[in-house]
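Slide 14.
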Amino acid sequence: MKPYRVILYYYYTPIADPDTYRDEHHLFCVENNLLGRIIVAPEGLNGTVSGTPEQCDAYMNYVRSDARFAGVQFKVEESDHIAFQKLHVRVKDEIVNSDLPVNPLERTGKHLEPADFKAMLNDPDVVLVDMRSDYEHEVGKFKGAITFDMHNLRELPDHVHEIAHLKDKKVITYCTGGIKCEKASAYLLDQGFKDVYQLHGGIIRYGLEEGGEDFDGKCYVFDNRITVDVNKVNPTVISKCHVCEEPCDRMVNCANPECNNHLPICEKCGWEMEGACSAECKTHPAKRAYDGTGYYVVNSNHYHPIQGLKSQQKNIKKMKLSLKTESA
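Slide 15: predicted structure.
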């Protein structure tokens, strides 16, 4: 058993006062020494947090103790290290950026549990569609899955025509933890796709519960680990080093912050290129110091977890004061 945990989850449910709940949620995380990235929105809650098993248990109990989130499903992974170096709890318009005109609480694709998903993989009438970004499926994806050359979910409407001829097939969407598919599958239904499913809990849950069979490569994650192993049955490497083109599933962010591309770069080339993806980036004056991981924390002067809470409250007060002045 490893000393730390990483918890991935989301839950769509109306939150009437996201600002107030954000402050309460942030304070609980601070008091329990949890680190991670959490989004609170009028449509629900989305987060990845990391800590000791005891801290993570306390967090899951805290979230579930609120009747609004009683049905939340957590994906819990073991880790050798804390997966974050900071805590951010933010209020946003959506819990996953999409701009898609859909509401998962009204309609979405049929949820497939991991075992049912596995059973359908060999169905000749089934089409798998990856709803993640290009740099994510470059390092790992399901065998035979259709992928789009898109950088985020907002671009999905520009790519739906690529699968328009499959509207009469059984379309199964998948992503890292399931959250993107709630809206993506709903959007496909709106576009006339007749039989749409989604992998409930995403790639991570499939790996935890079913061994990850037929997921090629590694799964990109949005924390210090960058990628994680999923397939314990028939693993393989599908990506190549961006520099030398040898098989490689080691993902890094380019050391040049103005580039910051997410790319597979082998350890040897990583050190030779000092974490950069090109000669231009290697000589860029803003290039960050490479430590062998290819993961860079955004600099924050005098960062402390409680500071985020104070800053948020200060901004809300300023906004309320501004509104009062305008109405006077």
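Speaker note: The chain has a mean pLDDT of 92.
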